[in-house]
Design a protein that fits this description.
alpha/beta, Rossmann fold, five-stranded parallel beta sheet, about 30% helix, seven-stranded parallel beta sheet, about 25% strand, 2 domains
């Protein structure tokens, strides 16, 4: 592998923040391998999104506004990505470790007969090859994995794992030609998405999560959301809260939910069982608020605040809001 290709995920005219993180990392890897950094932007509005990416250190941005990308399920996007990969040559393909990114990653890996590493949090260069590093076995160990006997490698990368750094952009915009002779069968008639707040959990710099200790659905909006808004973050939840129907499953963090890695994670009324720990243990700073001083989350949190969350969280919110007002 010599080149690096970034799959750009976007929605409603907005590029996901993780794209800029991938573009920055792609430049570093491509330079180390002696290749070029590419990006692929697909679907309606892609031409405008490509202009935003020009501020980042990419060599080539491949673009198509083909409406079929949104009209049909996955296949048009896979066709375009496959075409770029084959025209570029041996490459490492980077995708965000999101629902869409994982779906596309598996399909493009099968198309290219490529190796696939998921939930990558770092890359190492060994012997002129890119090695993916990420947590495995429910986060109990960190594994470095390389690609063997293949010209292509595919990696889904955890949002917030890398810093996004603009600058040095001089990318060439290349318009993609529609693959000939393709007929697609699966049409996307309607897209339904549970509301999960204004900011995606995977990309939020701060996550305030609630668990069984909140006692019901109301504290998620009356207690946690004001604090999350004050900190510029998003609200999450434990599986217990989602199973109880207090919040939609789109907010669930953990082994069977989303994996987050924010700069600050505040766990409110969450015991911190291994299933939840898997989804948030790589956060920068972890603060837990619980009335029980012996909860499992206290063993790996940076700070455990023991007390009544219904008194602590409003006071904390007021302090943050007050500090911002006087900043």
């Amino acid at each position: 592998m010599q080149h690096v290709i970034v799959f750009v995920e976007h929605k409603a005219g907005q590029t996901r923040k993780v794209t800029y993180e991938l573009a920055t990392e792609a430049r570093k890897i491509a330079d180390a391998l002696g290749g070029k950094a590419h990006a692929v932007v697909l679907g309606p509005g892609s031409s405008s999104l490509a202009e935003q990416l020009e501020n980042y250190p990419l060599d080539v941005i491949h673009v198509t506004d083909d409406a079929d990308v949104d009209k049909y399920l996955y296949d048009p996007a896979i066709d375009y990505l496959e075409a770029v990969a084959k025209s570029t040559g041996p490459a490492l393909i980077l995708l965000p470790n999101t629902m869409l990114g994982r779906d596309v990653a598996g399909r493009i890996a099968a198309r290219l007969n490529a190796g696939l590493n998921s939930d990558v949090t770092a890359f190492q260069l060994e012997g002129g090859k890119a090695v993916s590093v990420g947590p495995k076995l429910q986060g109990s160990t960190v594994v470095a994995s390389g690609f063997k006997n293949t010209e292509y490698g595919v990696a889904t990368v955890r949002p917030n794992a890398f810093d996004a750094q603009a600058g040095g952009g001089s990318a060439h915009i290349a318009n993609l030609e529609k693959p000939a002779g393709k007929a697609y069968a699966v049409v996307v008639e309607n897209e339904v998405e549970e509301a999960s707040g204004e900011m995606g959990l995977e990309e939020a710099p701060v996550v305030v999560s609630g668990g069984r200790g909140l006692g019901g659905p109301d504290p998620f909006t009356s207690l946690l959301k004001p604090l999350a808004d004050a900190l510029g973050g998003a609200v999450g939840a434990s599986r217990a809260a989602a199973d109880a129907g207090w919040v939609p499953y789109s907010l669930q963090i953990g082994q069977t939910g989303k994996v987050v890695s924010p700069q600050l994670y505040i766990a409110v009324g969450i015991s911190g069982a291994i299933q939840h720990k898997v989804g948030m243990q790589t956060s920068g700073t972890i603060i837990a608020v619980n009335r029980d001083a012996t909860v499992p989350i206290g063993e790996f949190a940076d700070l455990l605040v023991v007390g009544d969350l219904f008194q602590i969280i409003p006071e904390l919110t007021n302090m943050v809001q007050g500090a911002k007002a006087h900043a």
